[in-house]
Write a structure and sequence with these properties.
Length: 715
């Protein structure tokens, strides 16, 4: 029997270890108690359990707990809380089952809060419902705001936001913690607008927001780019003085402006922060990267280092992305070397995916593949990065190899990877594989779950020439957003189905979808094809009102093209001269307009003026030029432009360019030159080539030459 004064002395030593955080001394005390069989002492043992949990010595705490002759409620709660806090939620839930077998032990509020956190961590809704039932039996769910908040959090993390809202609605009293938990629950469930509505109701109910509330609301504004609401919160923070006294609030405000595409305002906030941590620096870097200003982003990264702030994984991901935007290989390689020196960064799969993407954008496909091969876990995001890179660079063999490996290894593709695979198939025109992927999507019922996936399938069938199938898929989409309509309009436009394109614009308006720049570009092309100048003029007025003529150069170029196609060259030139910047598309549209009116000299003059503005021609420009040479009988000039196109501008001739040259020869009766042209063509001539030969045959005779040309055209 150990004297009482010795027990009291040991209790004092244990408490002293707790206060001084001398964990090594605590373990020695634990060893002494174990040696002398004192772990089972009720007061000393229970106290030791709580102190060992605080010291994160969970195994020792459990051994002591199991040795206890009588376990007090606070020992159960302490060990359950410790398991949850230190990443062992399953242990906590198992211990609770043991606790329930002790009829004389009743859990308290803290016990349930810890258990609900455990359910949230393992996302086990069924276990959460069981614990909620236990809480309900004790009548704690409506009275205790902390349990109520824990229930709201648990249900939202387990994917049941409706149950979370129901718990909140049934609470007898609601403090700021309850409101904050509900607001965050809506954000994490993807209902950011609901979160802002909760914030407004909270204020109407007379609950004063705290700094956590404002951080949550700013996060909601970031997600849905609710800049007006975000600015109101900013004003309130300034009024209350919270901006300067809480660094997390400043960082949330900085992040909000960055996510809303306003890096200049983010920069103002950044410059006013009383102190800047890695989150502050990373947020300003991300703001500029997202806006495409990679130079400024990397400037801030260098400044961050000079201020002795160490980058985290998110910082590196942003900077690697900046290097990809700039094709900054040397800087990207330097970042890669830094990452290799840090075990945690080196094993981070998101950083690995960012490196693959960066090397692909810089044209270093071999290095991208090396990074991929070194990944310990090749997840669907890594495969997606690799396939996307190969697709953008047009490496067909590598793409097919990736698709085979994915199939062989049984990789379960998510929507992002499926989209990357379909884009690759479209690029390669790998129809059979594309249809196989589509069949898998249908089998899994994924078509209606992701609008991006549905949109890419609509695009795929149109690119393969099955516009009716595209329309069928489009009609099945559960929610047709702006992108869906634009994809279908672009499909009709590419096939020259102008009337259907114009109808799409009207239908999307009826469904409440407002057109954007891409919609207007498609519609303008359609009206140009149909010669519907009145409709085109109506769109012109709408474009002017929305300021798109200044904001989007492609809209301006399309407007010039529409007027030119409708034969309204003066109007086309009027728009052309008003454009804030003129690109190759707008110049080519003007040339096309002159060509339609037979003003060949003005076509060549416009071409030279374009070059004088340092704007390089594209393949379409040369189709216009060569057509003009053909129709005006400028045989030598046409040959000269054909050679200049490839030698001076590096444009590889396509079949349309060769057809223009053939047309020039046949118009002048040079049928003997046609076989030689087709000998040089690296691909099979099309129906236009054959019609040109037939018309030449009818006009000039020379059936032998025509037959010879057909022979070469069919090889």
């Amino acid at each position: 029997m150990v004297p009482q004064h010795s027990i009291q002395l040991l209790e004092g030593i244990v408490e002293g270890c707790r206060k001084s955080k001398k964990h090594s001394h605590l373990l020695r005390v634990h060893g002494y108690l174990h040696k002398h069989g004192l772990e089972g002492h009720v007061l000393l043992g229970n106290h030791l359990v709580t102190v060992l949990v605080e010291a994160r010595k969970l195994d020792c705490a459990r051994v002591t707990f199991d040795m206890l002759l009588y376990r007090k409620e606070y020992s159960w709660t302490s060990l359950i809380t410790g398991y949850v806090k230190h990443g062992k939620p399953h242990y906590a839930l198992c211990l609770y089952e043991c606790m329930k077998t002790n009829a004389d032990i009743q859990p308290i509020g803290h016990t349930f809060v810890a258990l609900l956190k455990a359910c949230a961590k393992v996302k086990c809704l069924q276990k959460g419902l069981e614990i909620h039932s236990d809480i309900d039996k004790l009548g704690l769910d409506k009275k205790d705001v902390f349990i109520g908040s824990a229930l709201i959090d648990m249900y939202s993390k387990c994917g049941s936001i409706l149950r979370a809202q129901e718990v909140f609605d049934n609470l007898k009293s609601r403090n700021v913690v309850c409101w904050n938990t509900l607001i965050l629950a809506h954000i994490e469930s993807g209902y950011c607008q609901n979160a802002l509505s909760c914030f407004a109701k909270m204020q109407r109910d007379g609950i004063c927001p705290d700094y956590v509330t404002y951080i949550c609301v700013l996060k909601a504004c970031s997600c849905i780019q609710a800049i007006d609401e975000g600015m109101k919160v900013h004003s309130e923070l300034e009024r209350q003085g919270l901006f300067h006294c809480n660094g997390k609030v400043g960082n949330a405000l900085l992040d909000m402006y960055g996510k809303c595409g306003l890096p200049s305002l983010a920069n103002e906030v950044f410059n006013r922060l009383p102190s800047r941590d890695v989150v502050s620096w990373t947020s300003i870097i991300a703001a500029y990267v997202d806006k495409g200003d990679a130079h400024r982003a990397l400037f801030y990264f260098d400044q961050m280092r000079s201020n002795a702030v160490y980058a985290n994984a998110v910082t590196y991901i942003c900077c690697i992305k900046a290097c990809g935007i700039l094709n900054g290989l040397s800087k990207g390689e330097a970042l890669h070397r830094d990452i290799k020196r840090d075990d945690n960064l080196r094993s981070n799969p998101v950083i690995g995916n960012a490196l693959i993407d960066m090397y692909m954008k810089c044209g270093e496909l071999t290095k991208a593949r090396e990074v991929f091969d070194e990944l310990t876990v090749k997840d669907v995001a890594a495969w997606s990065s690799l396939i996307t890179g190969y697709t953008e660079k047009g490496h067909a063999v590598e793409i097919l190899d990736c698709l085979k490996q994915i199939e062989f290894q049984g990789v379960i593709a998510d929507t992002t990877l499926l989209i990357s695979m379909l884009k690759a198939c479209i690029k390669l025109r790998a129809t059979e594989r594309a249809y196989s992927i589509y069949a898998e999507i249908e089998r899994k019922g994924l078509l209606g779950t992701n609008s991006l996936l549905g949109n890419i399938i609509v695009d795929m069938y149109s690119k393969f020439g099955y516009i009716l199938k595209s329309q069928q898929i489009f009609n099945r989409l559960p929610a047709r957003d702006l992108v869906s309509w634009n994809v279908l309009m672009a499909a009709y436009t590419d096939l020259g189905l102008a009337e259907q394109t114009a109808n799409c614009l009207e239908k999307m308006r009826v469904e409440g979808v407002s057109p954007d720049a891409i919609s207007f570009v498609c519609a303008l092309k359609a009206h140009g094809i149909m010669g519907a100048i009145d409709k085109g003029t109506e769109l012109h007025g709408e474009i002017e009102r929305q300021g798109l003529l200044v904001k989007d150069s492609l809209v301006g170029s399309s407007l010039v093209d529409m007027y030119a196609r409708c034969g309204a060259l003066p109007k086309a030139l009027e728009v052309f001269h008003k454009l804030p910047s003129r690109d190759v598309v707008s110049w080519t549209a003007v040339m096309e307009g002159y060509a339609q009116l037979g003003e060949s000299e003005n076509v060549f003059h416009a071409f030279n003026s374009m070059l004088a503005e340092h704007i390089l021609p594209d393949p379409v420009t040369f189709i216009v030029i060569l057509n003009v040479c053909s129709h005006t009988g400028l045989f030598i000039k046409g040959q000269t432009y054909f050679e200049v196109m490839s030698k001076a501008f590096g444009i590889t001739p396509i079949i349309s360019h060769h057809n223009c040259l053939v047309d020039t020869f046949v118009r002048l009766g040079h049928l003997d030159k046609m076989p030689r042209i087709f000998e040089r063509v690296p691909f099979r001539p099309d129906s236009v080539s054959q019609r040109t030969i037939l018309s030449a045959c009818c006009k000039w005779g020379g059936f032998e030459h025509a037959q010879n040309a057909f022979k070469h055209a069919s090889l």
